[in-house]
Input
Amino acid sequence: MRWLSILLVCVAGCGGGSSRSLAIGSPAPDFSLRGVDGKTHSLAEYASSHVLAVVFTCNHCPASQLYESRLRKLDEDYRNKGATLIAVNSEPADAIPLGELAYSDVGDSLADMKARASQRHLEYPYLYDGETQALASKFGVETMPHIFVFDEQRKLRYEGRIDDNSNESLVKTRDARNAVDAILAGSRVAVERTSVSGCTLRPTSQSAARKEELAKIESEPVALQMADEATLKKLRANPTGKLTLVNFWATWCGPCVTEFPELETTYRMYRLRGLDFVSISSNDPEEKPQVIEFLQKNHATGSNFQFATPNTFELQAAFDPAMPAAVPFTVLIAPNGDVLFQQLGELEFLKLRRAILANLPDDKAHPGQQAYWSAQ
Amino acid sequence: MSYQETFMSISSDRRRILGVVLAIAAIVAFRLIGHAQGQAPARGRGIQPNLEHPILQIGSAAPDFALPGVDGKIHKLNDYASAKFLAVVFECNHCPVSQLYESRIEKLYHDYKNRGVAFVAINPNNPKSIRLNELGYTDVTDSLDEMKIRTAFRRIEWPYLYDGETQGVSIKFGVVATPHIYLFDQSRKLQYEGRIDDNQREELVKTQDARNALEAMLGGKSVPVTDTNAFGCTTKWMSKATGVEEEWSKIQAEPVTVDTVGAEELKKIRSNPDKKVLLVSFWSTNCATCASQFFDLETTYRMYRLRAFDFITIATDPPDQAPAVLAFLKKQYASGPNKQFASADLAALQAAWGAKWKPGTPYTMVIGTDGNVLYQKEGTIDILEVRRTILAAMPDTKSYIGQQAYWQKAVSEKGRK
Output
């Protein structure tokens, strides 16, 4: 994980801000960027604000997510005091490998930003710079989140971290707030630059990263096993110790075939965090060649099963007597067999991904993630 | 003891009662925690019944209805009051499982209509909720007009009603899928709901659940198994996101290109080397009939392209008309393989293909997996005839056992009385 390595480096002791960061005293770089409100925003629009804070952040970065509520609070607390907060996302959305979206329900496109802003009720402007990263390079941003605070003359007075701990309960110094307060009070900003930790901004030069990841996935083997009653019972009991996503489908089922690529994408996003994906085809055993062809076309590298006999109802009852018979049917099963999410009919993927994220345990490098995703 | 073990360890009569209790408990829980189908339920639970549209409980009164039928009349529950028993079966046009049960519903209808059982079929789906790529096994979708077409084509005799407008009746029944059958006794209390029998493939059926229930009811006995799971295509609820608009935006974003084609390549296309069912449309920009039927052909491609099917358009315009050809194809979002004659010598290219047609008229052909011509038409086509020819030609092992037989029978029975 890129974020982990950066964090470790910084724990070991980071110096000042990035050497490429905009220098204190510099004028605010101009911009013209599209926001989640569908409008184009520019620097001049905020001319009446006494203080302008520009924070570079994104959807998929776990550190950004942990700071989201703090940014929302910053916006709320200072909006009526003459300070404006603007968030900018400079991630090249199409280039991010799916495996790096392991802590997110969405990627970093403008459409994804709209989904996040609406789900988390973000009221501050959230602008997309990922197409060219022009603004990120003017600011010299390499890591997110990274905040820049400008005074009334739009001279840079503070740049760096938002505060001194990604775990909010351990924060001692609220650097960004201190800077805003100082500027509003007409006094000197005591600490002008701090170091930043979080996720590294992916440069546009790495635009092939997603494609390279896909090529690797597409070279992985695709296997299909026939599932009898005992196999299905075991799958339902889920003795794997892992969170398991199970999808019942059939080649002749339109909604199943349509949603399958998104299920694979979901698996590719979370598999490194321990999510298992099991597809179970309800096709008749004689239709096996078509099932294999479909799975290969979709590079279905999870566990794939097909009903071993044409006795559909008996096999379904072996999996779970309470399961509905129609397809598609999807369940998310906890390591102890609890059903955490279910959907008869086509999935709404954001709901599914949020259920997965709320149930994947935190790893040491990313505390607070499960709590973030469990919050409504 | 877990929920699951509790559920399994008690007798089947009691399971229904417990099922009701659990359903109520689940509804209460649902209110408390605000979770529903499609969201994460609380921990420590098994698979939940569909709380959004719960299935009508055994013993419930038949929900009232007033729905338009394929006969142009409004049908009400009361219209069937004189029948001893009432069978309500939810089915639809587009679902391949529903299609495979059509002949079984027909037999049920014939076997029981003189024994006092009235049959009513209801289509729960709204066609606006169905994407083109869900129409891979059908000639028509699920509108009332298209139900009329299916009824006429398949000579369906029982009433076939449309609930897709509001889905109000389907919600009251809690229709899980098509097909899903409900049997009501003389006082119109529900005695059985679920599957018609225990296998999609008729030749493998062991238990005739709906027949068993009807026989018990007719014999004045209690129904042995009152509820089973309905297997098939999930109901297309209008309340859910359908993806119809997203599908259309995606189609509009697909690239449209044209390659030129000479005599040699025409011969190769004609030999159908890919062994998929192949629809070929010869057209030109100065042909009004071509333009008017082009959309239907493209729609056909969008319906079947996930299956063993290809569609090639071949413009007969001379090479200097290339910009007009491309402009027309772009307007049609024709994202499949498009060709244009490489020379203005129409006769030579027709000879290479092995057919003759008047310049300025469309020429349409369906070629089977073995290269045989299954359909050819100069001039205006009947798009449903084209689709049925394709459906009858697509092999089973590539799709769904019984499908090809259904369409082959349907096409060959066109003239049955």
Observations:
- The longest helix of chain A spans residues 62-78.
- Chain A has twelve helices and 15 strands.
- Chain A touches chain B through 47 residues (CB under 8 Å).
